[in-house]
Structures are given as C-alpha cells and as structure tokens.
Design goal:
Two copies of one chain form a homodimer.
Chain A (H helix, E strand, L loop, with lengths): L6 H8 L3 H8 L7 H14 L3 H11 L3 E4 L13 H14 L3 E4 L7 H11 L5 E4 L7 H9 L3 E4 L9 E5 L1 H14 L5 E5 L5 H16 L9 E3 L4 H12 L9 E4 L2 H13 L9 E3 L16 E3 L2 H16 L8 E4 L2 E3 L5
Parallel strand pairs in A: 1-2, 1-3, 3-4, 4-5, 5-11, 6-7, 6-8, 8-9
Antiparallel strand pairs in A: 10-12
Helix pairs in contact in A: 1-2, 1-3, 5-12, 8-9, 10-11
Chain lengths: 338, 338
C-alpha cells in the first residue's frame, strides 16, 4: 500500500477536481452519488487511508471563510450585517464552506488575528469589509499570498479581488434626479477626506454637478463624521448661507446624516420634500417610516455577499475567475423627502 | 512510548482540567504561561504525540458553537443580530471558542442541519434563538443530550439551559408607566396566540392591568403579525371604538407595529404623545429619530449573547453551572410618544 498517496492522485484517478475530492472525503460536499462513489473507489484503489485523509484534510483545508466586522456603537446597529452575513452563509453552504466570524480589533493589532487564524489552519480564506486606504489587513494578506476577497476597494495600485458597490454612481444618480426636478443649488453632507468610500461618493457628486454645468459653491460640501448630530449641524450651516447660494437640495452620505438634516430643516419650519429636498444613502431599516419617508440610495448588499463568496470559492478551487473586480450599481429609491 | 495516552491522562499528570489541556494543545487557550508549560511537559513525559493530539483534538472537540438565525424578509432587517452575534463572538473568543453560523431552514428540515453538524464533528454545542413552543430543535438536542443554550424559552415542562429577556416584565413596565400618567383605557397590539414570546408579553399586560384594577375591555387586545400594516389597521380599529371604551394609550409588541399605530393616529389628526400615547418594544435603530421619538422597551441583547456563551462554556467544561435559567430585565426608554 503506497504511503504517500495524495489527494491530487485520487482526483486524477477519479477524474474530478482536487477540491471536489477533498470535500467529498471530508464529508462536506454536495455532489452526485455517482461522483462520490467514483472518488471513494479511487481512494480505495490507491490505498488512500482514512486517517491520512483526515490528517491531510484537516491540515490543508478547513473549508472556513474568516470574516470580522467592526463593533457598532452602543446605541447603533450595523444594519448591513444581517443581509451581508446571511447571504454569505447561504452561498458558502451551497459550496460546502462555512463562514467563521472572529473578533474585530481596530488598527494593526487586528492583523494578528488574521495571522493566528492562518497559522492555526482555522480558515482557508477571508472576506474583508470596512476597507479603507492603506488597510493593514489587505497588505498583510497580499504579502502572505493568502486568498481573500474584499467588500470594498483600497489604494488604487493594489491588485486584489473585490466586490464593491459603485458609491460614486449612487450620488451621481441622486444629483441627476435632483437636477431633473429643477434643483441647481445642491449641497453634499459628506464624510471626512480620509474615507475611501466617502471620496468615491463625493466624486460622483462632482461629476454629476459638472455634467449639469453647475458650479459647486464654497460651503456646499460639508465633511464630517456620519452621525445624526453632524447631519443636523451641517444642514443648519447650509440653511444659514446667503439666499442666492443657499441650497434647495442636499445629498447625504448616509441615512443617519439625512435624518439629522431633516430635523434641522424642520426646526427651521421648512417642509422637507417641498421647501427643501434631502436624499439619504443606505436605505436603512425604518427609513421608509420617517416623516417624510426618506428618498435614498439602496445598496445590493445580499448580492455583494453572494458574489464575495462565489469569487472566493473560485479562487480556492483554482478555477478560472471571470473577473477579479466586481462593481455593482446601487439603486435610487424615491420616496417623499426629495 | 505508550500508544494510547489520552488527554485525560495528560490532564491528570498536569493537574489541570481536561478542557484546559485540550484547549492548550489545540492552541486555543488563554492560560498562564506556567499552566501551559506544565501541560506541555506532562504531554511530553507521557509520550503524547502531536499527530495523536491532532487526531484526538479534532475528533473530540471543535471549539465551535453552532448558531443559525431566521432569514429576514427582503425589506426588513434583523436588528438584533448585530448585537447578539457580536457579543457571542467576543465572549467565545475570550473562552477559546468560535461561533459557527449556519443556514436556517424553517421547520423539521432544520433539524437535519443540526444533526449534520453534530455527526461531522463540526460543532461542540449550539446557541438557539427564535425559540417557540414544541421547537423541534430543542426536542432533538435534548434527546441527543447535545449541549446547547437557548435564547428564549419553549414549553414549560422542558428542562434545558436558557437565557431570556422577561418580556412580561417589559409590557408590565409599559402599562405601569401609562397608569402613572393617568391612563385607564390601555390597549395592546399583540402577536398571534401561537407565539411563546407574544403570550409572555401579553401576560405582563394582563398582570399590570389587574394590579391597577382596570378591567380589560373586549376589543382592547388586537392580535396579528408584527408588521407595520397590522399595527396601523389595529390602531384604526381601536380608534373606531365607542368613545367611552376608546383607548387613550396603546402598548405594542414591537416597534414596527408601534410605527404603524403612530401613522394611523396621525392620519386621524391625533397628536401622538398628547392625544394618544403609544409604546413600542425593541428600541430598534432609528426609533429615536421618529416623530415623535418612540417610547419603547429595550432588551439587553448584548448581555443575552454573553450569558449564552458563558453558560455554554461552563456546560462544556463540565464545571458547576450557577444557574440553568437566566431571565434578564428589559428597560423602559421614555421618549415623546408616551
């Protein structure tokens, strides 16, 4: 009986791919009875021993996709997590994988958690989210040549697989919609300039303004943290501008800031949707129940989750990747606030 | 060199518990350097071989806690998931465990997923949520004597470990608060009578009404699915009652129904918080931003997540469980709607 039969030999003998063999022998696969018996027969013919199988399987492949997310503030909720994680878990299940959540820690420290999961063989791959410029996790995983797919982009020069929502397209749609409604003085309540996602969305704003031949006035761009209070304050500042410059419409970079802006406008006795138009970003739960219901940009989060896992499984199976970069379009949801 | 050295022998030799040994040898533990070296020394003295370690470890313990949740409707979000899962992942990490999410399927089929995870050794234990009467998962796991902790209760007779929020106490607090404000005609927009959680909350309503010597009028209890539209319709029905019976205050069993009720009251030109008081349940994200901001009941979800994992780890370590049933108090968050 040969001592060093490898899974690749079993795969060759059975005429199936390496990942299929490894999944079947690890009892993780959903393949036809016929394929399964062909693999088991090949394993037996070659003298592939169960304990060796177990050892190889377990040492080489865990069929686990590591995923970590930022902890929310005490009174906030990550409204994307449910859709994103559920779709990943479902897609992973269909491919014979599991998603392994692990703790998030800010900054460089977090890289150690990734290293530890790799070194202990806990995961075969990662999905990353909350990506920003110079993300240490991205740099680390590229250097380790460890498979991962990111929900989001990082520095333009880096080559890695990602799925992202085209945020610039979202704000572009918002501005174009406002222009069509006859608005010319359109402001943006945006994120700080160290935000990759925020800069992307701001580009869309500038592009759409330029396309409409509108000169962006100083003061129309308000940048700050994406919280209710900043949205409120920024809107108050915009409403204090000289009447000839004062915006009649505002695009915001998330729903929470949009709600702050709506409150500010209502404090000034403006009818939102009539005297001033405000557009959010996210379509957070309950945005539809606000008064007025929020016009906003919805991201296809479930599709992002599915695509991330789909790309990862292709990477792991070493099959041909159709595309390494997937950019999905968000959708303008028109309600009464604009 | 002995062939069949067991982890128990290593544990005895090192003078520590079996789970501690297994965690250390599986590189999952956070123990003192001193304990670690004692265990490694004992393993060496007894001739405990790495590959045997690996095999035993992997066959016997995965240090995984399986968890599955119901998929949300397309336009809804499970706002509890973020807090619950994040707190479980953090608590599990501290104890050397991971949480393993897996797909949810409705009904009896779902039991197969639990069976499969057990039979393939993927998990050591489960956390269950969305528990109801006659829950097939609960019955199956009790029968298999497989460790689990439930977030929620099932049939009164069943003996298993659970952590739950005392929903009855929540509605009791809501009614008591309304009574103190001078309300006597208090209605409840509740869930169908096959909901374990709903019945618990309804009991709290009846108890508080009885304690205030208020006779509950027919028609004050509206039962239906916990969606916006039902909250709205139920409120309209309540507002159509004879003026002598017509409620001046409503407790609802979730925030979504409360929002429906608020919309209905506003359609009837009532000022919510003045002409009629409405209390929600959940403190969902954005409830604070509604107009008026929603008075509601907040559940200590993070604490539930931590407690579930804490109990589970005690079960798995076969250490003494201080309590098999933990009932946590929710908190009334007073805002402007009541």
């Amino acid at each position: 009986m040969p001592q060093q039969v490898t899974l690749k030999q079993v795969a060759a003998q059975a005429g199936v791919s390496y990942p299929t063999v490894s999944k079947v022998l690890n009892r993780k696969a959903q393949v036809s009875k016929e394929t399964e018996s062909r693999i088991l027969q090949a394993a037996q013919q070659l003298g592939y021993r169960p304990n060796q199988i177990a050892r190889n399987m377990r040492a080489q492949r865990s069929f686990m996709i590591g995923y970590s997310w930022e902890r929310s503030h005490a009174d906030q909720v990550n409204h994307i997590l449910d859709q994103f994680l559920t779709s990943m878990v479902e897609e992973a299940h269909a491919a014979g994988y599991h998603v392994l959540p692990f703790i998030y820690r800010p900054g460089e420290l977090h890289v150690n958690d990734y290293r530890d999961l790799i070194d202990t063989g806990r995961v075969d791959s990662f999905v990353l989210s909350s990506i920003n410029y110079d993300d240490p996790r991205v740099n680390f995983l590229i250097e380790r040549k460890f498979p991962f797919v990111a929900f989001g982009r990082s520095n333009p020069g880096l080559d890695f697989c990602y799925v992202d929502v085209d945020g610039g397209d979202g704000t572009r749609q918002a501005v174009e919609y406002l222009v069509k409604q006859g608005h010319r003085r359109i402001a943006a309540i945006a994120w700080p300039d160290d935000s990759r996602v925020g800069n992307d969305r701001l580009c869309g704003y500038f592009e759409a303004m330029q396309a409409a031949a509108i000169e962006v006035q100083p003061g129309w761009i308000q940048r700050g943290q994406g919280v209710f209070e900043f949205g409120r304050e920024a809107c108050l500042r915009l409403l204090h501008m000289d009447p000839s410059d004062r915006p009649t419409a505002i695009v915001t970079f998330n729903d929470t800031m949009a709600i702050g802006a709506i409150h500010a406008a209502q404090e000034r006795n403006l009818r939102v949707g009539k005297d001033i138009s405000i557009i959010g970003f996210d379509d957070a739960p309950m945005s539809q129940f606000l008064q007025p219901p929020l016009t906003t940009i919805r991201q296809p989060i479930r599709l992002v989750g599915r695509k991330c896992v789909e790309m990862l499984v292709s990477l792991l199976d070493e099959s041909q990747l159709d595309e390494r970069c997937v950019l999905l379009k968000p959708e303008l949801i028109v309600r009464a606030s604009a």
